[in-house]
Write a structure and sequence with these properties.
29% helix, globular, alpha+beta, 6 helices, 7-stranded mixed β-sheet
Length: 173
């Protein structure tokens, strides 16, 4: 998938690129700097293996070609980690599995980058994007709601022996 190439046409001051296992140390360091995110669903800090498995993990009924695991870089530093599955779980729908932002990025800047991503997806034929937010997440819940995403469902996610309640949000283009 050439999503990063197309997205770069809409970005100013940052560059999107696919992340691969060549970036394992970068991915792990970035995720490890966000312990609150992982505290929503696990009782330990993210391990290196947990962090890097995201590079190639895909959900049931998806194929590797649907996955875009991207980084937004500014001045050589990773600013946003994006895990996206296109045409999942249905055609013309995108599932945003992770939008993890560096702590020095403002909400306004993150929102601008998100809007540029959705414009890119819309141009590629997507009609909506969905994502989940952990109950009790006091940062991302208002962020997504301020962007106009609507809560459409509450469900429970099981990861190993742990469960977490999440709200599914939807952004219709």
């Amino acid at each position: 998938m050439a999503l990063a190439t197309v997205w770069n046409q809409r970005l100013k001051g940052v560059t999107a690129r696919e992340l691969t296992h060549d970036d394992d140390e970068l991915i792990y360091a970035f995720q490890a700097a966000h312990p609150a995110y992982f505290g929503h669903f696990q009782d330990h800090p993210v391990t290196r293996q947990e962090a890097i498995q995201d590079v190639t993990d895909i959900p049931l009924n998806a194929v590797p070609e649907q996955k875009a695991y991207l980084g937004l870089f500014q001045d050589g530093e990773l600013k946003v980690l994006v895990d996206l599955i296109v045409d999942y779980p249905l055609p013309s729908l995108a599932w945003l599995g992770m939008w993890m932002v560096a702590k020095d990025v403002s909400s306004d800047q993150s929102a601008d980058w998100y809007r540029s991503l959705t414009a890119t997806l819309q141009e590629a034929g997507a009609v909506q994007l969905q994502l989940s937010v952990f109950m009790g997440d006091r940062v991302m819940k208002p962020f997504w709601e301020d962007l106009g995403l609507a809560a459409v469902q509450t469900t429970t996610v099981i990861k190993g022996e742990r469960t977490a309640n999440v709200t599914i949000y939807q952004d219709k283009f």
